[in-house]
Amino acid sequence: MPSTGPAILPQHVAIIMDGNGRWAKQRGLPRLEGHRRGVETVRTVVDAARAIGIRYITLYAFSVENWSRPSDEVSGLMGLLDFFLKRELSNLIKNRVRLRTIGRTGELPANVQRELARVIEATKDFPDWNLVLALNYGSRTEVADAARAYAVAVANGKEKLEDNSWETFSRYLDTADLPEPDLLIRTSGEHRVSNFMLLQCAYSEMVFTPTLWPDFGQADLQSAVDEYGRRERRYGLTTEQIKAGAK
Ligand code: IPE
Ligand code: IPE
Ligand code: MG
């Protein structure tokens, strides 16, 4: 179990980046313009996270369900992803940030897969800072994939059926090598998790902000982290137990 007691600095912050479309609509611009501005926010927030000392930042960039959007929006988003990966490579290397992904990336367009592989390979040895992109991600598909892989491992004798613990099963999730998010932020005023890290966020603190993603900045991240610092994480225990344990 992660440590209880007053939360200080989150090690892992996950963000549901939402509101690009509304940001554009408010300005009479095409939705894709909102996504373009959203890409700029990604750089700002990754830099801000490092400055604050957050070691893992996970960004929900494209959900399994997002394929059902209009095809020009989907192809625009894939184009922006390709652009982002090409542009950010040198910056990630300079700042020693490791890129990782969660989600069914094997279903992304071939050019995006190539760029991803290139950036992941070039940054794989950086130990301190991690940017995790959730791409073609959905918790339900992730769990279905993990259940299948786990069943194969049991059939092969690699896992024992009796050892049906969360610790064992969670090693089959896309997030196997990542700590659980301490803090989950969603922008744009929506109060839902939209199929994002449903199991990994079992005990995450959640902060919802009305700010649209293109307007989100360092101060907004800092204020979510400050809010996190005011929370008490109890993991099912009582405040008294937490206080006694902290002594
Ligand atoms: C988030 O912004 C980006 C993605 C889901 C790819 P939206 O495009 O969902 O923006 P809204 O919710 O329509 O404002
Ligand atoms: C969640 O946002 C997915 C991403 C941020 C990539 P959506 O805008 O797709 O979620 P819903 O449809 O409002 O739940
Ligand atoms: Mg949205």
Describe, in short, the structure shown:
With 247 residues, the chain is an alpha/beta fold. It contains 8 helices and 8 strands, in the order E-E-H-H-E-H-E-H-E-H-H-E-E-H-E-H. It has one domain: Undecaprenyl pyrophosphate synthetase (3-Layer(aba) Sandwich).
What can you see in these coordinates?
The protein is of the alpha/beta class and 247 residues long. It has a single domain, classed as Undecaprenyl pyrophosphate synthetase, CATH 3.40.1180.10. Helices cover 44% and strands 16% of the residues. The protein has helices at residues 20-26, 31-52, 71-94, 110-123, 139-155, 166-169, 218-229, 239-246; strands at residues 5-6, 12-16, 56-63, 97-102, 129-137, 183-186, 205-208, 232-233. A 6-stranded parallel β-sheet has the order 4-5-3-2-6-7, with helices on both faces. Strand 4, helix 4 (110-123) and strand 5 (129-137) form a beta-alpha-beta unit. Helix 3 (71-94) packs parallel to helix 4 (110-123). The longest helix is centred in the middle third of the chain and has 24 residues, at 71-94. It is globular. It starts with a strand and ends with a helix. The mean pLDDT is 96. The protein binds 3-methylbut-3-enyl trihydrogen diphosphate (2 copies) and magnesium ion (MG). One 3-methylbut-3-enyl trihydrogen diphosphate binds next to helix 1.
